[in-house]
Amino acid sequence: MIETSPATALHAIGLNKSYGALAATRDVSLSVPAGSALGIIGPNGAGKTTLFNLITGAVRADSGEITLFGEDIARFDARRRCLAGIARSFQVPQPFTGLTTYENALIAAAFGRALSEKAARPHAREALERVGLARKADMPAGNLTLLDRKRLELARALATGPRLLLLDEIAGGMTEAECSELVELVREIRDAGVTIVWIEHVLHALLKVVDRILVLDFGKVIAEGPPETILRDPHVTSIYLGPEEIQA
Amino acid sequence: MAYVDAITQGILLGGLYALFAAGLSLIFGVMRLVNIAHGDFIVLGAYIALVTVQTTGLHPFLSLIVVVPLMAGLGYAIQRWLLNRTLGPNLLPPILVTFGLAVVIENSLLMLFSTDNRRLAVGAIETASLSLGPISVGWLPVSTFLVAVALIAGLELLFYRTAMGRAFRATSDDSEIARAMGVNTRHVHSIAMAISFSVIAIAGVLLAARSNFDPFSGPARLIFGFEAVIIGGLGSLWGTLAGGIVLGVAQALGAQISPQMQFLAGHLVFFLILAVRPRGLFPRMD
Question: CB–CB of B183 and A107 under 8 A?
Answer without folding.
Answer: yes
